[in-house]
Amino acid sequence: MGQNVLLMIDVQQAMFMYDEKLYREQEVVANLQQILAKARAAGTPVIFVQHTDETDEDYRENSAGWAISGVVHPLPHERVVRKTSWDSFYQIELLHVFEEIGADQLVIAGMQTEFCLDTTCRSAYGLGYQNHVLVSDAHSTFDNKVLSGEQIVAHHNAVLGNRFVRLLAAADVHFA
């Protein structure tokens, strides 16, 4: 049997610095903290993915927005993997880290629903991680010109769920 891994995608300071708030921001933060505590208590590896973009001042390395948010800060022994695209697996070390620890089931949470979270879920499926979990109430985004954050999250849960991921609420996520 392989290893469960909690993948925290782009829970960075920039997400909390804008005038506009994330959809269900406080609930999502509480759920992120809940699953993080469960993973740590079970000894499940936690990997933080950190978006890095030198052309965007909010995500430029060492900027205030680039830092992993204090709401879920990594412990010294937890891995932080940087990425430069929406796909957490694109040209980065993440796949090597998974192979190193024998990861076979991913539990995915984080930001932003329609960008990095969606792309990473689909990419993981294509790479053979076909029994992974998206924590349905531990990801979020902002309203855009066409859809509200609520509609975006609901749409992605409906499209990704039971196709690319299994959906579980934070309360139903358990690590062995």
Automatic annotation (TrEMBL):
Alphabetical UniProt keywords: Hydrolase
Coiled-coil boundaries: none
One term of GO molecular function: hydrolase activity
Keyword Oxidoreductase: no
EC assignment: 3.-.-.-
InterPro entries for this protein: Isochorismatase-like_dom, Isochorismatase-like_hydrls, Isochorismatase-like_sf
Isochorismatase-like domain boundaries: 5-143
Family, per entry: Belongs to the isochorismatase family.
Name assigned to this protein: Cysteine hydrolase family protein
Lineage: Bacteria, Bacillati, Bacillota, Bacilli, Bacillales
